[in-house]
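Saturday, quiet lab. Running sequence design on the structure tokens for the scaffold JK sent over.
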């Protein structure tokens, strides 16, 4: 089951399985009160969230990760994301009104892409995680067998023809389309039905 959670400028999603759950993306730092209000309205508690996973490490996707980790939510890092964990630290340091704590990547579970399916199976979720690096080298997408794809900031499919010579974006979409999606969910755009 995928529960959409919108409490700021970024669409985030909670994937619930029979044995655990994964929160895909958070919003900007400082949005924790809005997060609490939103999950409460959806009947979810922080203790219901087993893992948090970012589609990439830009500030509007990881702002609450440390706070959630402090509350017992475990961080999952894909192998392509380990060098990008602190990308947003300088951005948050320049915002005096935000009390941001850098992510402790030493406490994270680091996965290789080929391990993602068995990781999800352990939570009672059917799907996998793939690299989609056209937006940033650490960008990933979550592909669920039920036909739902969570693609973060991947440029919308319908924009593909507007770009000249964007082979990286084309390759990312070829990978996503190879899974025969029925519904693609973006972080900053309306979902697309296929």
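Result came back. Writing it out in full:
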């Amino acid at each position: 089951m995928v529960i959409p959670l919108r409490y700021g400028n970024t669409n985030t999603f909670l994937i619930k399985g029979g044995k655990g759950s994964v929160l895909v993306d958070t919003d900007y730092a400082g949005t924790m009160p809005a997060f609490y209000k939103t999950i409460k309205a959806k009947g979810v508690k922080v203790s219901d969230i087993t893992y948090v996973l970012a589609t990439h490490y830009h500030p509007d996707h990881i702002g609450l990760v440390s706070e959630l980790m402090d509350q017992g939510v475990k961080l999952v890092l894909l192998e392509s994301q380990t060098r990008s964990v602190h990308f947003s630290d300088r951005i948050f340091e320049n915002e005096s009104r935000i009390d941001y704590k850098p992510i402790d990547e030493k406490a994270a579970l680091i996965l290789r892409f080929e391990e993602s399916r068995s990781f999800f199976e352990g939570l009672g979720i059917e799907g996998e995680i793939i690299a989609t690096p056209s937006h940033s080298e650490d960008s990933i997408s979550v592909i669920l067998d039920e036909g739902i794809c969570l693609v973060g900031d991947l440029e919308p499919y319908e924009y593909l023809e507007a770009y000249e010579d964007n082979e990286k974006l084309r390759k990312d979409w070829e990978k996503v389309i190879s899974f025969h999606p029925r519904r693609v969910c973006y972080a900053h755009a309306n979902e697309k039905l296929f």
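Notes for JK: The longest helix spans residues 167-177. The chain has six helices and eleven strands. Ask whether to fix the surface positions before the next round.
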